[in-house]
Amino acid sequence: MKIASALHLKSSFQARYVIRPYSITLDRELLFLLVYSIYSFTAVLSSSLFAFASVLSSLVMYASCGVLVFLWFLQKQFDTKRILLHIIIVVVMCLAVLTTGRKNLLLFSLFIINAGAVDVNKIARTSIVATFSATCLVILSCKAGVLPDRVYYHEGALAHSLGFSYYGSYPYIIMFNMLAYLYVRKKLHWVEIIAFVLLNNYIYYNSTLRLTYYLSLFVVLLYVVMIKMDFVTLNRKLYRRLSLLVFPGFFLFTIIGSLKYNSQRRWWRELNDLLSGRLYLSKIAFQRYHVKPFGQFIETNNMINGRIVTTNYFYIDSGYIYAILGYGLVFTLLLLAVYSFLIHYSCRTNDKKLFVWLLSLAIFTVVNNVWVSVHYNCLLLMLMPFLNDASLRLQKKLQEVIKFATKT
Asked: What is the pTM assigned to this prediction?
């Protein structure tokens, strides 16, 4: 009886307390967002006057590449089409790295191919928190006297760098923070809109950058008309078709305008002045460099010891011009295809917030090269999640068609 009772107690204990083998489970989404936040934070610091920032940013970039490669192999399912797309993105980016020397392009490709299982709203929120906090850290450090405030004479006024290496750094970050914030907010109140306008005025007062100032005001106006007033429905056939022409249209406008620019004609000079001299510099770029399939290294001459050069100044600001000459024809066509898909997706799903963001980027890329950077412009990281969603929508439609056909 005692033996039987002991055996019963043992079996009862084993049933209640099952000892399982020790295992570690990794949350791919959480790890991705952690890596992305650290990289974005240090990427903003690298454009500041912190002495350690560039070294820290380089270390974080290499470490992030290693973690993202590891994350890619943790995928539960390996779809042939998806892997092929991943390979194309990485190969094209790597070729651009070899020709331009921009190593961060490899990291960008790894971020893009690993973002498929991540919620796009979490990506946007992470970008906002990381880049805005880093920007505030730099500006507050400058106000506290830790970092110097470089002062430039720009368009008849004094432009302050506020702790950054250049006075044009923080206006771009703040503008894209605003776009990302508009995207993640379900409903924006008038108080927030007024706060955006006041912040935009403060940024313009310190930086004197009118391009970001007017584009930010345009973004606010577009948001009020399209979203606050619900004036436009995007998922109509006409808008879906026109959306495919947005990025190629602005691309061709920039290319043709640069090639046809003639300083002898008044209206060309006025357009060039409106774009802060971009047409003139882009025309010089086409005279010095030719379009190549896989790009080339572009030698610039714009800054020496924190000061803008006064002789032989040369810099390609336009993202469209730098892409076709620097990254190459193949890279540019892939980039145009990606952004055309994204803006078409925004119309098909009637996502007005995403459309405002993409349209603003298409316009801004005429004058600045930010459409490849992912730390404060995370739109490229939304490619894989939206592709997955579009694929599911297509499968659902096919199933409905097949179901309807079998019934009839």
From this structure: 0.87
